[in-house]
Design brief:
heterodimer; A: mainly alpha; 15 helices; about 75% helix; globular; B: alpha/beta; 8-stranded mixed beta sheet; 13 strands; about 40% helix
Chain lengths: ~325, ~400
């Protein structure tokens, strides 16, 4: 991660946190769900975009994080519930990742799909832990006797965690492990030839990705105060895949853009419908519009929104003479 | 990139976020003083969109008041209907918009899961909330003083069916439900409370099946071997279609099955034809087109507006609109005919007036509405499909 990139990240996070007290709860909730989506998408991006392992079990892993954190919050563990939720999901992610040692590509994707359905089933039947189909009601965590139950507090927490995850991944990408992810993604045989322990690299990818997914699930449960199987269904996993496709796989900031786009698009369509007094019609078209946009991205901009941002930046820098080459300012894929 | 330029870019990014993401939307502008705002959400595009007449009905009642009665106490009602898509995060988002941005004096929401997730929030916000759900888990006048439901709980509907069976001399009952909260929850409550035995009936089997099932032949054969006098089905219409279709395959008549209020659907006689004849269901609200006074108002409204869903669920929504509007009207009347200036005072007054509604005439949609227990009515009757139409075949039965 470049220093400038880090400073921008700090500034944006600080700006968001600074305006937080002035937001109404609705906007604060939007910020929360965008931040949760961004964290989840960053986790999936680490596994899929950086290490090349396609996964459809993201929602299931988030569910593990939510249920674990929920039970621990209810037991009075406070904010410690969040990293422990991440830890539980990390363990599950490593277990799900075991087939990746033998399976690749589409076959592994199908294995994660199976894992997603197994997790959904477990959420329904493990009643002592999950309260089955009716779901686990989650009490707000307390810090020094103060309950974090306000939407603004949840948003602040989610943004702070997003910044930590984002900068953590930024640092990771510059390490040997981060570079190993990229080589494994490109070609496992070449990676072995370069002396990279592929199994170990994948193990870390699953562990870290699962941990981040668990963190996202934990905040999601805390913010909504309910963890139920319907909230962590396969459809959510698809949403996360869409987020990293739309945002730009393998990039650091792309998943954030993708999460914001996928989360806020339905809201934007709803508002446009209200503006033209056709909310019901546009409501029905929301899913259609969402699907169409994904297809259009795949056809015209497979590298996602980050590629669009890069092109814009290149145009801007090209119009102004600069001592640096444009490629030096682009985000490494 | 120099530090100065980086900071400039950061400031620009922060400003853009503040201006774009945090700015309220067009409909989110703060309401004017003495505004009457009602905010509803339903499922316009979700998996249970077949029932969305419920949200149209409530919205249309407020529109009816605006168009034909000049609003409430001479003031137009600002009504907003949003699509919750039966997705928890979407519904939680909409709730916050309704309460904060729309500054609604009454909010109406859809799924059981969302109301459960929001119940503490609703109590903290002190905003009157009309749930579409009939779940007993959201009905608690003491702990959840701001939540109201529109009729008998799912458990009470099951009790009504059991009592109807007992009145007919039945002795044994079987229960079927899908493996989701809506299916399993109420059945477990009734079973564990011993209400079946207290009614003088014997439970011979309970069959759970996958929510998205496409074939229940094996379950029907099992049911046939139990030979119950009635099979109570706590399921949605798509599952009921599979049940009745496969029951016919093994020779079980539709008359054996009784569904809850959400099984009044024209899809059942339309798709199953004669195979649906005799199927019975719990009916709480009068059907669309029934010979009741409320239909005159609905017809008048229909003369000037299009009604998207003309079914019993629309009637349920209209009923909810009537009771919500009455509570708002009473709160304004008690304040000397003026809308209270302070929204919190207004909400509190509306909640108090809701609980004060007794023997309210709702144009015959239900016999009468009483909201002292927060559920409007505990009465229902049994309706049966005869010649492709739902016909009431019992008197009103009280679940209490």
């Amino acid at each position: 991660m470049k220093r400038a990139q880090f400073i921008v990240g700090v500034a944006v996070a600080a700006a968001v946190l600074a305006v937080m007290p002035f937001l109404d709860r609705y906007v604060a909730y939007l910020v929360t769900i965008v931040a949760i989506g961004s964290i989840g998408a960053l986790g999936l991006n680490l596994l899929t975009g950086l290490c090349g392992q396609i996964s459809f079990a993201q929602a299931g892993l988030m569910g593990i994080g939510a249920y674990t954190a929920g039970n621990l919050c209810n037991a009075g563990l406070g904010l410690l519930a969040i990293p422990l939720g991440g830890l539980a999901a990390a363990v599950a992610s490593v277990v799900i990742g075991l087939p990746a040692l033998r399976l690749r590509g589409l076959y592994f994707a199908i294995a994660t799909l199976a894992a997603q359905f197994i997790l959904e089933y477990l959420f329904k039947i493990l009643e002592p832990l999950t309260h089955g189909i009716s779901g686990l009601l989650i009490r707000p965590p307390t810090v020094l006797g103060f309950a974090i139950q306000d939407d603004r507090a949840n948003a602040g927490l989610a943004v702070a965690l997003l910044f930590l995850v984002w900068s953590g991944i930024g640092v990771l990408r510059a390490t040997n492990l981060g570079r190993s992810f990229l080589v494994v993604r490109e070609n496992e045989i070449v990676a072995r030839g370069m002396g990279i322990d592929v199994a170990r690299t994948k193990f870390w990818a699953f562990l870290l990705s699962g941990f981040i997914a668990g963190i996202a699930g934990a905040i999601s449960g805390i913010a909504s105060r309910l963890a139920n199987p319907e909230a962590f269904s396969f459809a959510l996993s698809v949403d996360y895949v869409a987020m990293i496709i739309v945002g730009g796989q393998g990039t650091l900031t792309g998943p954030l853009l993708g999460a914001a786009f996928v989360t806020l698009l339905p809201e934007a369509i709803q508002r446009i419908g209200e503006l033209f007094n056709i909310p019901s019609i546009l409501s029905a078209l929301r899913e259609f519009a969402f699907g169409m946009l994904i297809i259009l991205f795949l056809i015209f901009e497979p590298l996602g929104l980050m590629a669009v941002v890069r092109k814009l930046r290149l145009r801007l820098t090209a119009s102004k003479p600069s001592g640096k080459s444009p490629s030096a300012t682009t985000e490494a894929v | 990139m120099s530090i100065i330029r980086t900071l400039k870019a950061s400031a620009l990014a922060g400003a853009l976020i503040a201006a774009g993401a945090f700015a309220p939307g067009t409909a989110g502008t703060a309401s004017a003083a003495q505004d009457i705002s009602v905010c509803l959400w339903g499922t316009i595009t979700g998996p249970d969109a077949i029932l969305n007449g419920m949200s149209y009905g409530a919205r249309d009642y407020f529109e009816y008041l605006n168009q034909f009665k000049g609003g409430i106490a001479g003031q137009k009602v600002r009504t907003l209907l949003l699509d919750g898509r039966y997705k928890l995060d979407e519904e939680l988002k909409i709730y916050r918009r309704c309460v904060d941005q729309e500054q609604a004096v009454f909010v109406s929401g859809w799924s059981t899961g969302a109301v459960k997730a929001l119940r503490d929030q609703i109590a903290q916000d002190r905003v009157p909330f009309m749930a579409q759900s009939h779940s007993s888990e959201v009905l608690d006048p003491v702990k959840l003083p701001y939540i109201f439901i529109p009729g008998p709980t799912y458990e009470q509907q099951m009790v009504i069916a059991l009592r109807a069976l007992k009145l007919q001399g039945g002795k044994t009952v079987a229960v079927m439900h899908p493996d989701n909260e809506y299916g399993r929850g109420p059945v477990n409550v009734v079973r564990q409370s011993g209400l079946i035995e207290k009614t003088g009936l014997k439970l011979v089997d309970t069959i759970e099946f996958p929510f998205d099932t496409q074939d229940l032949t094996a379950q029907m054969l099992r049911l046939k071997s139990r030979n119950p006098d009635m099979v109570y089905v706590q399921a949605s219409t798509p599952q009921l279609l599979v049940i009745l279709r496969d029951a016919a395959k093994v020779g079980l008549p539709a008359k054996l099955f009784v569904g809850n209020m959400y099984n009044i659907s024209s899809a059942i006689p339309e798709q199953l034809g004669k195979g649906a004849e005799g199927f019975r269901t719990i009916q709480i609200y009068a059907d669309f087109g029934a010979d009741i006074p409320a239909m005159k108002d609905i017809d008048a409204f229909r003369g000037k507006n299009e009604i998207a869903k003309q079914d019993v669920y629309y009637m349920k929504g209209w009923f909810q609109g009537v009771v919500m509007a009455k509570a708002i009207e009473n709160a304004i009347a008690r304040n000397g005919g003026k809308v209270p200036d302070d929204l919190q005072t207004f909400r509190k007054a509306v909640r108090a007036e809701m609980t004060g509604l007794r023997s309210l005439d709702v144009g015959g949609i239900v016999p009468e509405a009483n909201y002292d227990t927060h559920q409007g009515t505990t009465l229902a009757r049994v309706a049966e499909i005869r010649d492709g139409k739902y016909v009431p075949v019992s008197n009103w039965i009280d679940a209490r």
